[in-house]
């Protein structure tokens, strides 16, 4: 797969449908692979953390989660034209799992949150086979790993926050032998109803960041990364 690269971090120029086709291929081939969501904040953090950059680039698929990544691709003549957000991809994978019989395991979030999210997902996608659910506050990691191996899922979603969840995935993925692994951050809180997501029209227009800023104004420092990121991307382009 040909990938685009921004400030040393890979991003796949795939839309939602194309990513889902890759999911089917990965599950069919049974080779442990993982998906990571890429946004400007992660890319900027990777500038100061080589291990994080290596982690992001080691993923099988890097989805363009942030609108800033889409803008960067347009400015550089790339092929990315739409976001593939982590939560939307997770929901679509669950829909596909229900249709094709894929086995799903969900690990992470606070006690009770994952269970509630699974109820919502099963109501929405009849036939969804969730073979295991564990919150992220476990004490015996070995017991969790053995439970996942015993349940033998096709898909493992890990909700521990990024990049902790990706480090956990890469540390254990060869031992777990789960075909598809994906970190999903706070997706379970949104699905369970604990956190309200931006209206659909704002998401479609790429303004989800504005909704979150209005709801959580203390996030402005994190969001101020976007113009810095785009300036660096343009500077890198002019150098080339």
SSE map:
Elements: E1 4-6, E2 9-11, H1 16-29, E3 33-38, H2 40-46, H3 50-57, E4 61-64, H4 67-75, H5 86-100, E5 103-108, H6 113-124, E6 129-134, H7 141-151, E7 155-159, H8 164-176, E8 180-183, H9 187-192, H10 200-204, H11 208-215, H12 220-223, H13 225-239
Parallel strand pairs: 3-4, 3-8, 5-6, 5-7, 7-8
Antiparallel strand pairs: 1-2
Helix pairs in contact: 1-5, 2-13, 4-13
Summarize the structure.
The chain has 240 residues and is α/β, with parallel strands linked by helices. The protein contains 13 helices and eight strands.
Q: Could you walk me through the main structural features you see in this protein, from its secondary elements to its overall organization?
A:
- InterPro entries: TagA_TarA, WecG_TagA_CpsF.
- This is N-acetylglucosaminyldiphosphoundecaprenol N-acetyl-beta-D-mannosaminyltransferase.
- Belongs to the glycosyltransferase 26 family. TagA/TarA subfamily.
- The chain has 240 residues and is of the alpha/beta class.
- The chain has one domain (4-239).
- The chain is 53% helix and 15% strand.
- Strand 7, helix 8 and strand 8 (180-183) form a beta-alpha-beta unit.
- Helix 1 (16-29) crosses helix 5.
Fill in the keyword field for this structure:
240 residues; alpha/beta; two-stranded antiparallel ribbon; 8 strands; globular; transferase; TagA_TarA; glycosyltransferase; N-acetylglucosaminyldiphosphoundecaprenol N-acetyl-beta-D-mannosaminyltransferase activity
């Amino acid at each position: 797969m040909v990938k685009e690269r921004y400030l040393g971090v890979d991003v796949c120029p795939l839309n939602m449908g194309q990513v889902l086709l890759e999911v089917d291929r990965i599950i069919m081939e049974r080779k442990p692979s993982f998906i990571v969501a890429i946004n400007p904040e992660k890319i900027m953090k990777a500038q100061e953390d080589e291990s994080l950059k290596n982690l992001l680039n080691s993923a099988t698929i890097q989805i363009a989660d942030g609108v800033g990544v889409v803008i960067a691709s347009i400015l550089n003549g790339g092929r990315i034209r739409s976001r593939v957000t982590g939560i939307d991809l997770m929901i679509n994978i669950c829909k596909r799992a229900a249709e094709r019989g894929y086995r799903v395991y969900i690990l992470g979030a606070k006690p009770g949150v994952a269970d509630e999210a699974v109820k919502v997902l099963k109501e929405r996608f009849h036939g969804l086979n969730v073979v295991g659910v564990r919150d992220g506050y476990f004490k015996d990691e070995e017991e969790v790993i053995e439970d996942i191996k015993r349940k033998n899922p096709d898909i493992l979603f890990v909700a521990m926050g990024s990049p902790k969840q990706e480090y956990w995935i890469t540390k254990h993925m060869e031992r777990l032998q789960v075909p598809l692994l994906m970190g999903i951050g706070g997706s379970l809180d949104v699905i369970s109803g604990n956190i309200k997501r931006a209206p659909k029209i704002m998401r479609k227009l790429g303004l989800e960041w504005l909704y979150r800023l209005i709801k959580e104004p203390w996030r402005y420092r994190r969001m101020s990364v976007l113009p810095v990121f785009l300036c660096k991307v343009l500077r890198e382009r002019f150098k080339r």
